[in-house]
Each structure stands twice: as structure tokens, then as C-alpha cells.
Give the backbone structure.
Amino acid sequence: MKYPLLKSLLSLGTIILACSCSDDKSPSNGDSSIIPCEDALYLPAEGYLIYTSNQKVTDLSGNQIGKIVIVGGTNYVIVKDMAGTNLIDQLNITDHSKVTPLAGDPISCNVGKSGSQISTCEDARLMTADKNYLIYADGSVTDETGNPIGTLAPTMDPTLFNMVDLYGAPILNNINLAQYPLIAGDGIRYKITEPAYRWKDATGNYVIYNSTLVTNPAGKVIGVIDFATGTIFNTELTAALTVVDIATLMQPKSILQLNSKCVDYDAPVVSSSSTYIPPVNSSSSAYIPPNPVSSSSTPKSSSSKPKSSSSAPPPSSSSAVVTNKCPAIKTKSGGKSGSGWATRYWDCCKPHCSWPEHAHGNYSKQCTNKGQNESSDWSGGSVCSGGGLMTCTSQIPFTIDGCTEMGFAFAAVPASDGGDCGKCYQLTFTGKGKYSTDDNHRYIKGKKLIIMTTNIGGDVQQGQFDIMIPGGGVGMFNGCSQMGWGPQGDQYGGLLSDCEKEKNYKPAATLTCLKEKCNSAFGSDAKAKQGCLFLAEFMHGAGNPLHDYVEVECPEVLKSKY
């Protein structure tokens, strides 16, 4: 059945609010913490805010999650998500047992200000939906730090546009640009030598590298940061310039990529006499997703001998050192233990533990030629910063014959554990997910994953292990453009996150979709495809599974591939 729109949605909203709003700006349920910038209808059970003036539906952080459709001639609306799927089939917006009118307060509001601190070098329209989008005059679309997301495509209606990602897949449809505020460009461009964090406050604009180096936007070194306290000091360490909120800094929206809209890449020149500055480390983000929860993460070592390019190639999962039975895993005396969750990524960057100052002689493999040929040029640059060295595809996750309940993989750990190159941990899955639990999580209850650390991430949290899985999402840094692979899916969460959203989070359909996408994206790379299918087959498509972990002695099947 089709529902005609009322001719004047604004008028309807005005009538309803005039009848039901008092001077009290607190919800009738007593939750005075919710103060929208304009009049809204609050749905306590769902955590939604409905703005009848523009038909927009947001969460309590101000992120648009959908729109409403008015049932003509009635007080009923249909609440739809951004893809047009019904969230609420029928809602009487005059039923105060389900809907609480809130009077807007543009001065004191804490909902609807999303993106108020966003700046860009060029004029852009700010669209706040599932996340913040900046839409430029040339039709390009970026995130709020200027990292490319996609483009606008025209529709039959000259006032409306569709947004598609960089591969042409639809993101949002029927966008009227006139509805969104224009942010005036500030003309500030950032000159960076590596992917870096951007921080802006009342004291100025800062570019922050994981090496602790801090520059101004023009690339001039102005100080260093203490990541433990968030304090940026001048170069003489005699004065504090500002204090950074580390949790905010580590969010994806704070990261400047080499191809960002307002970035100029300044290739580093390292001479034999210069002080070595390590690159920003690769990782995926601990991203906390919206509801329904995506498994993409809103959010990377010395028990084995160093390897050289002349060492024997690592065995494949079908000819591992131990076959026909699981290797004996020994808990390390005095080692770490706890609980947490597993995320995933594969960014193709040179691993953290392949840099001399991090490996301390215990090097993780690094490769050239699309991850196939090992290299012992440990001082060489990463593909993520214009160099030629990358992750070896031999470090895909794998299983071994005769061992069905145990898998093996490499992973990133928190930056605070940066000295953990080559350490191993046993993760035992609990059958639950961090953000939601479905049959795919329950399927892997009791399974064990033995991981060996090769990387760190400034955005990886304690208890979190960021598993290296092709197609798991490129995360903060993308070095996979030269691999010849197909689309890698969501930046955070990869192909599985794509499938979850496409299949409306139905476990069986998501799992089938993931297998299809693995076969398609890695059709020309059998090894990478095998690693991608590990997520579908061994981990059964479980996104962000919870686990208990304990530090263990590294088994030979991992040491031989490290």
C-alpha cells in the first residue's frame, strides 16, 4: 500500500507541537539530558528523535538514521531507515505513551550540534546521517577529515542527488543539498609525510604522528606529544602547548590520509645522518557502529628468530609444521590474561614489527610484489607512505589438518603494548558478540584462535585483538590499492560489514553473502581468498566476537610464518 505525503508536513508538526509542548524543555519521562536544537518528538523505547520540520529521524547523538513518511490525513507516520526499510510500521505521533514532545533550545542543545567543530579547506555542505559527510561543489564526498568516501550522482529530479561510494555502490538516495548547512572553507591545507592525526582547538591546528612528532599544518616541527597524558610540548620540552583528548584523537574522523581533500603529501627524505622518524603504524579502528550494530569496529613481540629474505618460505595451511592434530598450546607463566573482543583488518602496510626500532632483531616478515616476495630491506618504506614494502600474504589466518576447533592468525595489539612483537595469545570465544549476539557468534563458542602479534594500533584498546584477515577492512591506512583485488568493503569492518547491512543482519544470509564477496574480491589471488574465507568458515561470519585470552608460548606453526 502506498501512503501519500501530507501537503504541509511543517504545518502538521507545528500543530502537534503547539498542542503538546509546554515551557518545560525536559522530556516528560524526566530525562532532562536530551535537549535538541529544534523542536523534536522523542521515542524513549527506540532512542529516536523525529524532526517533523524536515522529516528527519536521528539517534540521540544527532546522527540521521532515517526519515518519516506521513500517512495522509492521519496522525500516523512510518519510520524508515536510510535504505527505505521500515523501522516502525505505524506510529501515532500524538500518542504520548510512546512519543514525548521536546522543545528545542538552540543555545543549550546537546543533540543536533554534530559537526559544529568541523572545518575544511574548501566550501562544503555538511550532511549528518549515519556519519558526517562533506559534499563539495565538484560533487566529491569526503568524511569530516577530508578522506574520500564517494561522489554525488544526478537523478531525474534536478534538485535531488544520490550518493555512491568509490566503487559506485549506493550510500544514500534523494539528497536535497539545500537542506544542509554550508561550511565556509578556511583555506588551511595540511602537509604530511605519513598518515597522521589532526587536532584542532583554541590554541591552533596540530598534525600528530605516532612517532610522537607534532607539526603545524605547513609541516614545520613544533613539538612532541606524550600519548599517556595527551600533552603536546614544545620542541625544547619546556612548555605545554595544549592537551589533547586521546580518545577523540584516536577516532577515524581525526585521521589525515595521504589522499585527503585538504592534504598535500610531502614525501620524507631520510639521509644516513638524519634522525630516523618511524611511520604511523597501521591498524584498523576500534569504531563503535550504529544500531543495528555492524561488526566493523565506532576503534598492533620476542619468541622467534629474525627472518631474512633468504629464509625458507612459510608452509601453507595444508602443509603446516604440525598436521593431523592440534599443536600443544602452553600457557606462559606470568603472562597476560583477561577478556575482550576481536576485530579485523588487512591494510597491506608494512608491519610495525618489521621496523628495526620496533623489532629489536625479531623481525616480522615483510614483502614486495603484491605481498609475495619476502624482503630483508628493514629500513625500506611502507606502501602506506609511498614505499614498496607491505604485509606478506603468507600471514593470512589459517587452520591445519585434523584441528577443527583451533585457528591461527596474526594480529595487532594496543599501541601501549608496542614492545610485544612476536608474543602469542590464545583467544577462546564465548559465543557472544560485543555489540550484539546471533547464531554466528553462538556457533563459534569454545573455539580457540591462537594469534601472534606483528602490529600495533593507536586505536586498539586493551583486550582487543585486531585480527589480520584479507577483506576485513583497510582501517586507518590503505596500502592495498596496488594489489589488484576487488572492492574491500567498509573501511572499518570490510566485506562482512557490507553483508550485514545488505542482509539486514540475518546470520545465515550474511554468511552466504560473505563467502560470495570473498570469492569475488579475491578471484585473482587464491591465498588472499583463503584468508578471507577463514572469517566465513572458521569464524562463521561472527563479527566482533567476545573472548577470554591468555598469553601462551608461540607454537611452531605461527613462528614459521612470523
